[in-house]
Amino acid sequence: MELLMPSEVARLVYGYLRNEKNEDTAECFLKSSPCLTECYQMCKTNRNFNIKVNGFNLHDIFDVFGTMCSMIQERIPEAFESKTLIEKLQYLLDSDHTPTKEKR
């Protein structure tokens, strides 16, 4: 997944609000967010817009992120535990060291 554009983040937030049945807040956000101007115009003409990005909604993204963090944490040596998530991932990708902590 590539970096998200501000309009994509706004659509994810809007979708989250809608999915949580927070309709009033979702509508206010849709009307007031500069990142959703085009989406608001579409709604005014009774057209729908996608509230997912790359097939994921906001909840999906956080679920996948949590799973990835757990998978990385299971495989990273204790010496790397103070590193950033990206540094840990880069270590795992650059090396053949992928055993889980239990197997060390």
Describe the model.
The protein has helices at residues 6-19, 23-32, 37-44, 58-75, 85-94. The longest helix is centred in the middle third of the chain and has 18 residues, at 58-75. It has 104 residues and is mainly α. The model has no long low-confidence stretch (mean pLDDT 90).
- The average pLDDT is 90
The chain-level structural class is mainly alpha
- Outline, from the CA principal axes? elongated
Low-pLDDT regions: none
| Fraction of residues in helix | 55-70%
- Per DSSP, the total helix count is 5
Instruction: Estimate the strand proportion.
Output: under 5%
Major β-sheet annotation: none
C-alpha Rg (nearest Å): 19 Å
SSE string: HHHHH
Could you give the distance between the termini?
Answer: 32 Å
The count of β-strands is 0
InterPro entries: LisH
Short description, anyone?
It is built from 5 helices and no strands. It has 104 residues and is an all-alpha fold.
Furnish the topology, listing elements before pairings:
Elements: H1 6-19, H2 23-32, H3 37-44, H4 58-75, H5 85-94
Helix pairs in contact: 1-2, 4-5
List keywords for this structure.
mainly alpha, 0% strand, 104 residues, LisH
